[in-house]
Structures are given as structure tokens and as C-alpha cells.
Design goal:
With 216 residues, this protein is α/β, with parallel strands linked by helices. The chain contains nine helices and eight strands. The protein has a single domain, classed as 3-Layer(aba) Sandwich (Rossmann fold). Helix 1 packs across helix 9, helix 2 crosses helix 3 and helix 4 packs parallel to helix 5. Bound molecules: adenosine monophosphate.
Length: 216
């Protein structure tokens, strides 16, 4: 097995797919968004710094120096015997270069799953999605719209601060400017596997599993 980096625009469903894979394949789920939200919830110094940055740049990325230092520290304390699935990291070339150093040093190999989704689908999904305030499960399917509590833990479903129309547009722009160049970066390294992210959660999951089996 190899490590996995999951790439895709906001609303591509990468969080949902990454968490599913982590559970089914016993991988370590390394989601920088969730890790940072945990820090915020636990009121740690990093969490407070994250909150301050977010207030200044709604929907924007936190600076590379901040996130790279945070990720480096986390990678030192997790169980490296497990394969890792990276969700939400890297998001810039500088972050990708930092992660390359980690892979080389630790002699780890990886693949990159690139979820491709049409822009109309992205906007629709983000505008309607809600997240469980307790366990983080994401809800965006039409048949889930009426739900008010989580199927898994009964937590309250809430809209994320970042999911307003203005912030959604800003996040897509940032993705196109900062994160899209990563696709060429990984293409040159022959690591990219494109996945059609417009399909249902189950269909995307199936496609991903087939690609992973083939790559191992
Ligand atoms: P996410 O849940 O992945 O959308 O992350 C939530 C927020 O955390 C983002 O809007 C960014 O402000 C910040 N963040 C998470 N991962 C990164 C990253 N790799 N680079 C910069 N900012 C990040």
C-alpha cells in the first residue's frame, strides 16, 4: 500500500471520500482542516492563532509557514506504520515540496487522487452542505436536506462558516490560483489518477477503490 494525497476543488467530496477510505483501509486520516478545527475547539495556542488568521481571511488559506510548521510537527507524532491519507494538504506548491521531503526521508511512496467536478456541482454542493458539529460527518445529498441531526452520533447539523455564497466564490478562486498548479506538479512525477467526482458518493468510492487496487 502507498500513502494517498486526495486533491479536488472545495465541494468535490474529497473529505467524505478520504474519511471512507481511511476507515475501510485502516489508514491514518490526515485532514488539515479537521486537525486545525480540533486545535481551535481545544483552545490550544495553535488553535487561537488559526482562529485569528481565519477572522482576517475568511475562506482564505492560512500562510504556508504556519501550516507547514503545523504539519511537520503532527507528522512527527503520528503512527507512521500506518499508511496516511492526506486531505486538504498540500494546497500550494510550497506545501507540496515540504511533503516531498517527508516522503523521501521516510522512504514512502504515494499516489494522488484528483477528484474532477463541474463548477455548477461544486456551487450547489457547497451551498447546501451541512456538517455534524460533533463528529464532522458531511451531509450534502438532496435526500439529506431535511435532516437536523447526525445519523452517526445525533450531533447537531450546522452550516460551515465558510459556506456562504461570497466565501464559496472566493474559495474556488483561491483553489484555481493556488492549488490547481499542483496537478501539473504531480503529473510530472507520474502520480496523478483522475477520478470523476460528479457521480454519487458510492460510485466515486467504487472508482477510487478500483484505481487503488490497480496502483498497488
Ligand atoms: P478545510 O476543512 O480543508 O476546507 O480547511 C478549513 C480551513 O483551514 C481552510 O479554509 C484554510 O483556512 C485552512 N487550511 C486547511 N488546510 C490548509 C492548507 N493546506 N493550507 C492553507 N490553509 C489550510
Amino acid at each position: 500500500m502507498k500513502d494517498i494525497i486526495i486533491l479536488g476543488p472545495p465541494g468535490s467530496g474529497k473529505g467524505t471520500q478520504a474519511k471512507k477510505l481511511a476507515q475501510k483501509l485502516s489508514m491514518f486520516y490526515f485532514g488539515t482542516g479537521d486537525l486545525l478545527r480540533d486545535e481551535k475547539q481545544n483552545n490550544t495556542p495553535i488553535g487561537k492563532e488559526f482562529q485569528e488568521i481565519l477572522e482576517k481571511r475568511e475562506g482564505g488559506l492560512v500562510p504556508d509557514e504556519f501550516i507547514n510548521k503545523f504539519v511537520k510537527e503532527k507528522l512527527q507524532i503520528i503512527d507512521l506504520h500506518k499508511n496516511i491519507i492526506f486531505d486538504g494538504f498540500p494546497r500550494t506548491l510550497s506545501q507540496a515540496e515540504m511533503l516531498e521531503i517527508f516522503f523521501k526521508k521516510q522512504k514512502r511512496d504515494y499516489i494522488v487522487l484528483n477528484l474532477e467536478v463541474n463548477e455548477e456541482n461544486i456551487i450547489l454542493r457547497l451551498a447546501t452542505r451541512r456538517i455534524c458539529s460533533n463528529c464532522g460527518k458531511i451531509y450534502y445529498r438532496p435526500d439529506e436536506l431535511g435532516k437536523i441531526s447526525c445519523d452517526v452520533c445525533q450531533g447537531k447539523l450546522v452550516h460551515r462558516q465558510e459556506d456562504t455564497p461570497e466565501v464559496i466564490k472566493k474559495r474556488i478562486k483561491i483553489y484555481n490560483q493556488q492549488t490547481l498548479p499542483l496537478i501539473d506538479f504531480y503529473k510530472e512525477k507520474n502520480k496523478i489518477i483522475n477520478i470523476n467526482g460528479n457521480l454519487s458518493i458510492e460510485e466515486v468510492d467504487k472508482e477510487i477503490r478500483e484505481e487503488i487496487d490497480e496502483s498497488n
